[in-house]
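Field reference: sequence -> structure
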Amino acid sequence: MIKRIFWVDVLRTLAIINMIIYHACWDAVYFGIKLPFLNSLKGVIWERYICISFIFLSGFCFYMSKKPILRGLIISLCGIAVSLITKIFTPSEAIIFGVLTFIGAAQIIFALCKKLLLKIKPVPAFLLCIVLFAFTYDIGRGYILWVKLPQTLYQNLITAFLGFPPRGFYSSDYFPLLPWIFIFLAGFFFQGIFKFIKKDVKSNIFTLFFINISKSSLYIYMIHQPIIYGGFYIWHKLMG
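Structure field:
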């Protein structure tokens, strides 16, 4: 028997599998294969589901984290590594302030005020986070709902990290603090609402598959793209 919140393992595993498939499709397009559905509404919804599920579950697990600052530093360093690698090998599709950079930063920021967050009533806080996410969703495009924000907010990489990218800024995987911090906090307060606890899970092939994938999510994230990209690169060279 293994003590786990098993449904979290299942959801995280499904998110990882979806991420791998999505990135495989993205790499295929990069190498010239036409997949128009990626830019359709269904493709956008699919991509948003993957991102939201990862960030929400990260906030959920942060609630139970014993060493959030250390975890945040490790994830941040992985995010920096991804940025450097993509900047060197695929500069036209470089990742600046990607999802790992965001999750690492969120872990560190909220680790410093976790005790204060635990004192906040989770139900209204959760609902407020959902509203604020919707309210700030278009900040990167220069708007809060229909109100245009002043261009002076959009200056440099620091403002881009906060959620106000300057003109000409591009990242193939961009997750600034705003609006995504509210999804992270929504996951945190969701755990606080129901007080999920680890329960005994039978150790068999089925459960171990989900548990091991879930526990290895960071490692899988770091290695899956080089493997997929390398496979397409070899195929492209052999087949022309």
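Note: The chain has one domain: 2-239.
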